[in-house]
Amino acid sequence: MKSYFKHSLWHFLGFLGFAAVFAAIVMLLWNWLMPHIFALPCINFLQAFGILVLSRILFGTFPSGWMARKEMARYHRHPLYEKWAGMNEKEREEFIKNRHHGFHGYPFGQEHSHSENTSEQ
C-alpha cells in the first residue's frame, strides 16, 4: 500500500511540475507578445494557469494521456483487438508464442508479408 501511495504521489508531483512549467511558458510568451501586438496587459503565473484551465474547458486539448486514449477507444477499436477478440484460447496461445518472431513488421502475421507477393511473380 505504501508503494502505491508513493507512486501516486510522484505522479501527482510530476503533473504539478509539468503544469507549472507549462503555465510559466504561457506566461512568458503572453508577456512577451500580447502587450506589444494587441496592447493587452501582462499576466501573472496564476492568470496563465487559469488560461490553461479555460482552454481545457473550452477546447478539450490538454492533457493528453490515459483519458484521451480512453475517449478515443470508445470510437475506434484497434484492428489487433478485433483479431484477438475473434480468437479461441489455442489461437491466442499460439499468437502469444509467435508475437516476437514471425511478424516481420506486420501486426497480422504472414498474410501481409512480401514473401507471398514475390512467389506470385
From TrEMBL:
Compositional bias annotation for Basic and acidic residues: 111-121
Region (Disordered): 101-121
Residue intervals passing through the bilayer: 12-33, 45-68
Superkingdom as given in the UniProt entry: Bacteria
UniProt entry keywords in alphabetical sequence: Membrane, Transmembrane, Transmembrane helix
Protein's UniProt name: DUF4133 domain-containing protein
UniProt organism field: Prevotella herbatica
